[in-house]
């Protein structure tokens, strides 16, 4: 073994990453991170503020709007389009929204070259700029899910990009906002055309379409008119204190501009939404897609460091973080999704909503932070029970709400299901007998779901992460690594599990010749994906221990050595902090997070540290 591949080098890199990660904590002791600036968010935010101004309700945001235009103009891609992040390839949704924003702010004549480039890019995707072709191209990106396609087209109509008068709304589907007047218990049975988190868009965009192009059916027209005030009351009831729905700039912007364009600019929802937008702009004139993911990235950081790494923080800091997590657990029914008490959101801010990825993340973090897990058992059991009740009939875990339907974020997903299994297993020794029995049944159903959804090549598809270099924007590397990690927590003997062996073989086969990984073999390496692969493979090797066949052991060792060498080189020159846009936000909206490469690297080096003795004795 060469000096560059020696375990002592791994040890030094492991220590360095933990030190770097601890240094990233904010003053209150947790991690906050920073989301990428977003052309899509910036375009929607400045449009919402401009439409409010146009309606006569001055926002005193002219400077912000102009700064947003300048940021967009300076971040156009060479092909004339825009991607969701400055590192993203151009896509039809973001480019169309930016094109509409310049029209909404009446700035097209000030940026003729940029507008010409944007229109040329859109035309390559749609044949022409007609409303029909635009609607067809944007709808094709999202399929049956209207959560994002309808808001994009609505903004184009509001900005004047689809023509004038009632005809501008012809290509925009009706959203049945009147259904929001019914009790929330009916939503799952109604099979709404949007996902559960998009209720604000359903109400606001449904109303703006009704305002400009009411139904030709007189009874439906009267019904919708009668439901305007009740549904606006519902909208106000679910708006958080910050004013930002889900702390998300695009969703809040769509609501604000729709209300302003339907003579509701004076409404408190629009005014509070504008307050949120003005407060969340960055110094460079851009907006992120969300305020921050502090709870989520803190959970990832704690998991990455592990129990031993967390001890480096000191007892007082760990106790403070424990309390920080306990303070975030929802102990009352959530007004937005009607979620029962027990879950955690991705952020401690008021716009967060409990979900099935952040809840296991918080449960795992609490277990790693405390020296006495039994002392937190009542709160952990509440979280475990919350997850048990969320499990779908197919055995998998949705993101927000059980039984809403089969649209993204409401249907089951492999990565979230595997994450939940890890949390259940970790807390098993500390929970009541009834909960453990229920968890046993749920775990078996979850495993059955995972086995059933494994791809023929041995991989799994995730929900919340993708890779822009793949045609379908999927990320099987992320999905497979996360499922392997989750299954290792419950599968007693990975060598006797064909699904696990196929997944491990798939991960080994995706490694590029230089030692790194992308979403699949041949794609550009990223720190995030390389770290995820290394972590899951090292954990697999440790789980198989001395029973591992020699041929598989040698393949794993060779892969881990090459991957560790690739990663260590980047840790030593600090290039491991370079982030990639692999994250999916709502509705295929790309982002990168500055802490992702660090937290995944920490997890990889911790896993390598655990198998280090195997290499030292070889």
Account of the 3D structure:
This protein is mainly α and 618 residues long. It folds into three domains: 1-35 and 455-618, no CATH class; 39-288, Alpha/alpha barrel (Glycosyltransferase); 329-453, no CATH class. Helix content is 55%, strand content 1%. It has helices spanning 7-22, 39-54, 62-74, 92-104, 112-126, 131-142, 149-159, 187-190, 199-212, 218-238, 249-260, 268-280, 294-310, 315-328, 358-369, 377-390, 414-427, 433-453, 476-488, 498-509, 527-544, 550-572, 596-616, and strands at 37-38, 287-288, 583-584, 590-591. The chain has a two-stranded antiparallel sheet. Strands 3-4 form a two-stranded antiparallel sheet. It is globular and about 75 Å long.
Q: Determine the mean pLDDT.
A: 92
User: How large, in whole angstroms, is the Cα Rg?
Assistant: 25 Å
What is the topology, as strand order, of the major beta sheet?
A: 1-2
- Secondary structure tally, helices: 23
Number of structurally distinct domains = 3
Helix content: 40-55%
What is the makeup of the main sheet?
2 strands, antiparallel
Class of the largest domain, according to the CATH hierarchy? Mainly Alpha
Which residues form runs of ≥5 with pLDDT under 50? Answer: none
Termini gap = 9 Å
Structural class of the helix and strand makeup?
mainly alpha
Number of strands: 4
Q: In the CATH classification, which architecture of the largest domain applies?
A: Alpha/alpha barrel
The shape, in one word, is: globular
SSE order = HEHHHHHHHHHHHEHHHHHHHHHHEEH
Strand content: under 5%
CATH topology of the largest domain: Glycosyltransferase
